[in-house]
Task: inverse folding
């Protein structure tokens, strides 16, 4: 909640600022932008369905553009998409036409696309992401080729999220056929590879291609153990996905070897979850939702409801009562109640979730 207040105050400051105000920045102002960028990187999504934000190049002398990108990214992380859209639109409108700024322009269009994914405006997201991709491809032979390739991979993966949301399987497969080979051909930061591979594995799971999903999740887990920090949190998240795949395949014994919720109490499940201060937000919600599903599928629906109630209280204290994460957990809880035949409790959870989603995103958002 404090973060949201900071974003709101910064939004007012940005509205009153002009590019010339950043012409001769002090060391303190530069450090503020650096710290915001570090804060975003520390909490950046590893498997977000809202897309992956890019940051402006640090060597850019246009601190105004860097500031807009950094604060826009942080606004999206704190569920303030309108502020994020404003920041990225401002960034686009203030970028010059030389090579360096064209890179920054592609960054801004990508980020604007992510903001529209978050808001559920998928056609606008697609248009901005395609613009970003075109700008990066125009600069393919620049001296920053490795940076551009990384950006192209990120934008392509974001486009896949749009196509999947639009249920455009042909377009998704077309992007996939270009994207996946690039993981083997282009030197990429492990974090970028992990984001793409996680989406690929989740897509296989959602399409009920269970053997493929299992192989992909297991390979990703091995890759992350070798290449990425924050291993404990990410490994736990992937392990829970592997557990869900095993349950979907009818391999209850293999699922139970990862976690057996039939024998767990609520305090034991909370201890297993072990939320830490540095747990990235999207990994937190992915792990939480996976645990609720596992409890439900392993027949411990009472524990699933109790754990959901615990998560709702945790989200309300940490993020505020109207935060979309609260709605996502309420939605899960409502579905569990429905499976238990408790129609009244289910209806109440789903109604509360609907009110939050509608208030935050409007009536046209897919979650609504």
Result:
């Amino acid at each position: 909640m404090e973060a949201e207040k900071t974003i709101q105050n910064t939004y007012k400051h940005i509205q009153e600022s002009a590019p010339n105000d950043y012409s001769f920045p002090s060391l303190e102002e530069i450090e503020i932008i650096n710290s915001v960028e570090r804060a975003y990187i520390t909490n950046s999504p590893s498997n977000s369905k809202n897309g992956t934000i890019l940051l402006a190049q640090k060597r850019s002398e246009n601190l105004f553009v860097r500031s807009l990108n950094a604060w826009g990214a942080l606004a999206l992380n704190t569920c303030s998409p309108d502020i994020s859209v404003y920041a990225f639109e401002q960034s686009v409108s203030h970028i010059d036409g030389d090579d360096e700024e064209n890179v920054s322009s592609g960054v801004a269009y990508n980020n604007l696309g992510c903001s529209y994914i978050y808001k559920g405006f998928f056609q606008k997201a697609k248009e901005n992401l395609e613009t970003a991709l075109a700008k990066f491809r125009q600069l393919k032979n620049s001296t920053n080729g490795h940076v551009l390739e990384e950006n192209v991979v990120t934008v392509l993966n974001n486009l896949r999220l749009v196509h999947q949301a639009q249920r455009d399987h042909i377009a998704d497969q077309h992007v996939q056929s270009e994207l996946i080979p690039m993981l083997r051909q282009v030197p990429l930061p492990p974090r970028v590879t992990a984001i793409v591979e996680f989406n690929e594995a989740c897509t296989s799971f959602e399409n009920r291609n269970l053997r493929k999903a299992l192989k992909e999740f297991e390979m990703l887990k091995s890759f992350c153990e070798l290449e990425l920090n924050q291993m404990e949190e990410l490994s736990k998240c992937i392990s829970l996905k592997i557990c869900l795949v095993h349950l979907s395949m009818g391999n209850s014994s293999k699922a139970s070897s990862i976690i057996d919720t039939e024998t767990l109490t609520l305090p034991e499940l909370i201890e297993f979850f072990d939320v830490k201060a540095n747990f990235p937000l999207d990994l937190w919600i992915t792990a939480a939702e996976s645990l609720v599903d596992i409890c439900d599928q392993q027949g411990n629906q009472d524990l699933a409801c109790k754990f959901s109630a615990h998560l709702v209280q945790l989200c309300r204290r940490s993020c505020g009562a109207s935060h979309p994460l609260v709605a996502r957990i309420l939605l899960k809880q409502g579905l569990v109640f429905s499976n238990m035949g408790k129609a009244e409790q289910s209806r109440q959870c789903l109604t509360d979730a609907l009110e939050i989603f509608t208030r935050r995103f409007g009536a046209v958002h897919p979650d609504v």
Q: What stands out?
A: DSSP finds 17 helices and no strands in the chain. The two ends are 23 Å apart (CA to CA). The chain has a mean pLDDT of 80.
